[in-house]
Amino acid sequence: MAFTIQLEGNDLGADFLASGSSLDGSSSSGGRSMGDKSMSLRLSIGTGAGLITDKAKPENQVGVEIQPGLAIAPFHTLFEMQGWLANRFSLGAYARIQLVEFAYLFGGRAQYVVAPGSGTDFSLRAGGGYGRVSHLVDLGPVMDRSLQGPFHWTAGALVTSNLSKSWAFVAGVDFIHLIGDSPSYHVDLNLGLSLKL
Predict the structure, then answer these.
(1) CB contact at 8 A, 114 and 135
(2) Which residues pair with 154 in a beta bridge?
(3) For residue range 57-107, what is the model confidence (pLDDT) as tens digits?
């Protein structure tokens, strides 16, 4: 004698089966705010400091030697644009512009969200590009600046905290290794806002 048992979702108290998206903490109906976004724009302001070498040259006091050591780069803006290729992975471009003692660098980098949360994400990112960082140097009676670069690679960490569906507060730390005629090890601290499109 054969028995037929029919199982229905409502009888089991479950109306759907777990899928890959529900297992990793996201879903098509809700999930992380980043999941339904294809692009992010960021604007940050920041400050930084670097270790300059004996290859650094002053821009104004020509012929004066600079002592190697710590030098600050007090103010810059950072513009970023990211295209999200997956829920946790993006590729993008950035431009770092110093308005005081003007200098700029730009490049591209990848970002991966290693610790997603309901309102706050922690990401790691890395990339590289071209340009220079301007460091203030003490020449005794006067202050001058020195330009480091012109090539660089960068690695950093970013915390993104949602303020609304479209806006988020961002805080990041980036290490920049400047390579070329005037090398430097540099670290930036950035604070800003992100717009999710």
Answers:
(1) no
(2) 127, 176
(3) 999 888 888 989 999 999 999 999 999 999 899 999 999 999 888 999 999
In a domain, 26, yes or no: no
Q: Are 135 and 50 within 8 A, CB to CB?
A: yes
pTM more than 0.70:
yes
Nearest to 184, CA basis, from 50, 34, 37? 50
7 found inside a domain: no
On the 0-12 / 13-18 / 19+ scale of CB atoms within 10 A, 19 is exposed
Split into its structural domains, the chain has a count of 1
| Structural domain boundaries, residue 96 | 39-196
Residue 11, helix vs strand vs coil = helix
User: What CA dihedral angle connects 79, 186, 74 and 81, to 10 degrees?
Assistant: 0
Question: Is the CB of residue 38 less than 8 Å from the CB of residue 197?
Answer: yes
Cα separations in angstroms, 151 against 107, 130, 141, 182: 10, 5, 31, 10
Q: Residue 106: which CATH number?
A: 2.40.160.20
Is 30 a domain residue? Answer: no
Number of residues assigned to the chain: 197
- Taking only the tens place, the pLDDT of each residue in 106-164 is 999 999 999 998 899 999 999 999 999 999 998 888 899 999 999 999 999 999 999 99
Distance CA 98, CA 47 (A): 10
Distance of CA 92 to the CA centre of its chain: 10
Instruction: Tell me the three state secondary structure of residue 12.
Output: helix
